[in-house]
Amino acid sequence: MSRKELKIGKWVKVNVTNMVAEFFRLPRENLAIVVRVQDSKNRMSLVVPHPSSESNNALMPYIEVSLRDNSHKRTRRTIGMDCTENSKEVRCCRYPLAVNFEEFGWDWIIAPKQYDANYCSGECPYSFLQKYPHTHIVHLAAPQGSGGPCCAPRRMSSISMLYFDHDLNIIYGTIPGMVVESCGCS
């Protein structure tokens, strides 16, 4: 519990790093952060005009939360190639793709607001197919309807998310298959 004396029109920063770490350590527990702002007469005083009431001057509480990912992940070498947007590589390659949920209008996602998803693109020439025996056999057999080998994710990983469900409960979940870790011809 923390008390802070406020002056009108001032921002207050509260570090909740340890509290959020505890949430992630015990994801199945029903934990919460409660923020109560009162004036000296115990009246709620952190308010802004309610957006749906232009004429009756109704007010609603306002709090802004921002999250920052400070994790530094170690990277492992992979068989697939990594390229950049400016790369001249035409073979199957993993390219960076930053996904920003706010740009999609997905305001129900609390964190992360954006993440690195990556994507696969490029050609799969015959010489590249030797690494993947199944793809090589399909290429040789050329079954009807087969468009030939294509560049696709070979390994994917999950991301952890905080989001609101339909009942506005805050949910912590691990969503599989959200990050392309390596690409190859399939």
Q: Your description of this structure?
A:
- There is one protein chain.
- The protein is an alpha+beta fold and 186 residues long.
- Helices cover 12% and strands 27% of the residues.
- A three-stranded antiparallel beta sheet has the order 5-8-9, with no helix packed on it. The protein has a two-stranded antiparallel sheet with strand order 1-2.
- A hairpin with a 5-residue loop joins β8 and β9.
- The longest helix is centred in the N-terminal third of the chain and has 9 residues, at 17-25.
- It is elongated and about 80 Å long.
- The model has no long low-confidence stretch (mean pLDDT 76).
Question: Tally of extended strands?
Answer: 9
Structural class: alpha+beta
Sheet with most strands: strand arrangement: 5-8-9
Report the radius of gyration as a whole number of Å.
25 Å
Distance separating the two termini: 55 Å
Helical content class: 10-25%
Can you tell me the overall shape? elongated
Mean residue pLDDT: 76
SSE sequence, one letter per element: HEEEEEEEHHEE
Largest sheet: 3 strands, antiparallel
Strand content: 25-35%
Number of separate helices: 3
Unreliable spans are none
InterPro entries: Cystine-knot_cytokine, TGF-b_C, TGF-beta-rel, TGFb_CS
Protein name: TGF-beta family profile domain-containing protein
Pfam families: TGF_beta
Organism: Parnassius mnemosyne (clouded apollo)
